[in-house]
Amino acid sequence: MKWCWAIQKRCSIAYVKKNTKDSIKNYKTFSIPRQRSVRAAGEATMHRVKEKLKAAEQKSKAFKQQQGLFITALERSRDQAQEKTKPVTSVAQVQWYTEDHCSNTTDWHVYSLFLMIMEDLIEVLDILEAQGSTSNVLENCRILLCPTTDISNLRAQFPHDEVNRLSCVEARSYYGGVVSLVPVAIDLLREAACTTGFVQKETEKPETPKPQPTESIPESNVEDTLATQTGNSHQAKKPSKEVGGWNAGNPAWRPPGRSKV
């Protein structure tokens, strides 16, 4: 009976060890693909953020070139809506102009470009917030991109020149906020993406000064130059004659015909 009990105990221990090894092996085989899938999902999200930011920047460059058309369209829409004395205060107001107070296809196209940029920026903001990113930059950007936020006092600073391209103080007070919204929002989203690691911050490399070529002087010229310099120095240090003018050192003048006694 004892040897049967010992055999049964050994068999149970071997069974437990085998199951433990199998479970560890299965855990390893399942954990590696899971880690790879998480990493692939993170890379896909990073690529998506980069592409959306790049698309928004390309559209913003085209919109900047059409800023004059955008201001003209806003002037016409404000005239039709009888809001000539009110500035453009929000994205919702531009959307209202697009739907109800758009007079031609040119105005509609430039309005649509502006609204598409807003959609791209909001999508980038949603992606960053979905990844658990929380910062004051994202909160400010969320408030800024809200369609009903008052942006009339918003002004883009240097190096952006959207405000400076407006014609006069009156135009700046009416349209300074709406033309500043796109560059300011892009800067905030890029800063948020850099802090979370989705986009690498671009740093300018300091320019190293190029060494200036030195002119080689022949040895013969060097020797001549040294000889000239030493000769001049000897002439400068040569002691002068006795004081007496041009006839210094000559005997005194005597009248002719008289001999020396």
TrEMBL record:
Entry-linked InterPro entries: SPACA9
Name of this protein: Uncharacterized protein
Signal peptide: none
Coiled coil: 39-66
Source organism per UniProt: Aldrovandia affinis
Sequence segments annotated as region (Disordered): 200-261
Pfam families given in the database record: SPACA9
Keywords: Coiled coil
Source superkingdom: Eukaryota
Membrane-crossing residue ranges in chain numbering: none
GO CC field: acrosomal vesicle; ciliary base; sperm flagellum
Keyword Coiled coil annotated: yes
